Amino acid sequence: MDRTSLMTNIETNWEKFLDLQISGKIPFFTKNERMYDCLFAQQFNREILEHLFKVAGFLRKLTKNKEGMEFANSLLSHKRAMLYFVQPSTRTFFSFLNACHILGIKTGEIRDTSTSSELKGETPEDSVRTFSSYVDLIIMRHPTPNFVEKTAWLMNKTKRPVPVINGGSGKDQHPTQALLDLYTLYRSFNGEIDGKTIAMVGDLKRGRTVRSLSYLMKNYKNMKLIFISPKEFKMEKDILDFLKKHEITFHETDKFEEGIKQADAVYMTRIQNEHDKSGESGKVDVSRFCFNKEHLNIIKKNAIIMHPLPRRNEIAVEVDDDPRAMYWRQERNGMWARAALISYIFGVDDKLLG
Ligand code: CP
Fold it and tell me: Which among 104, 148, 152 is positioned nearest to 342, based on CA atoms?
């Protein structure tokens, strides 16, 4: 189904649109057979992922010298972006900000709705529409589930649509985190991701990073996931059903050491207590799910340790100096992967690959 018939079918009704399966929504966020809005991890296929990894790698090398940086800066110097981050963020915000600057995009930001006319009663939808009048791209983090998707949906119905990139929404989706996580795996394993075992540890129930990364596994062969968590924070059924549908092997356990021993990548996460309704995180003993210096001796020699960050005590600081600790590189990879994605959305990626 193309965008026009999809528009007709849903009669521009948001509730009807929201009810569609993701696969049914994707055409609405695609233009000229290219991703236009980046909202769901399920939008990435292997071809796009590996193309973006190449673009990111090229940008990295290109910008090491002044001439290369000036060329990158010229690519989208006629564009402006709004970073609308009304939920706390350090690295997603700054990596997107710097990704825009690498490509020459001028940026504005809203990080607190109390500084916008939302305080005077303007709806978030009208606020976002107002921003879009002045910019060519919206990058958004929002605590409300589906709000980023709704923004893109609204934009696509206006006469001046602008692309929308999801920088994290609700507890469900963080597609560009999944992109940079996979880019980190790609770089760490010299492009050989097929057949790898990934252990995801921590609050799998409410962590949008592990959910989004799980979706990307469908693009690779013979992947195995080990979900390690206390029983209170097990991975949700919708993700397990997705993995079954795509014949991706997974195993659930609460035995931390047994799980991490088998992994090629150990992906640690923090407890997402911001989603607590009545202090439930405090009632769960998560001390068994922390990576300490001793664990360096039991993981595989070539395994890598990842974390979307920020961390609390899930990884001891002494682990940072081990060459297998990848999380600081992982966050820097985010800037390159996001710059590659923005260049792709605006169709200047080919100028980079030549
Ligand atoms: N990984 C991540 O989303 O970090 P921030 O919350 O700091 O953006």
Answer: 104
In angstroms and rounded to an integer, the radius of gyration of the C-alpha atoms of the chain is: 20
Q: Which residues 6+ apart lie within 8 Å of 177 measured at CB?
A: 92, 168, 208, 209, 212, 213, 308, 334
**Structure tokens that stand for 42 in this block:** 């399920």
Distances (CA, A) of 121 to 110, 134, 219: 16, 21, 44
Helices 175-188 and 208-216: crossing angle in degrees, nearest 10, is 60
308 close to ligand 1 (CB < 6 Angstrom): yes
Q: Which two tokens stand for residue 317?
A: 């600081």
Query: Would you state the pLDDT for residue 97?
Result: 98
pLDDT-derived band at 275, boundaries 50, 70, 90: confident
Task: State whether the beta carbon of 230 lies less than 6 angstroms from ligand 1.
Answer: no
Q: Distance between CA 79 and CA 322 in Å, rounded?
A: 41
The predicted model scores a pTM of 0.95
Of 137, 139, 135, nearest to 83 by C-alpha is: 139
What's the 310 CA to ligand 1 centre distance in angstroms? 6
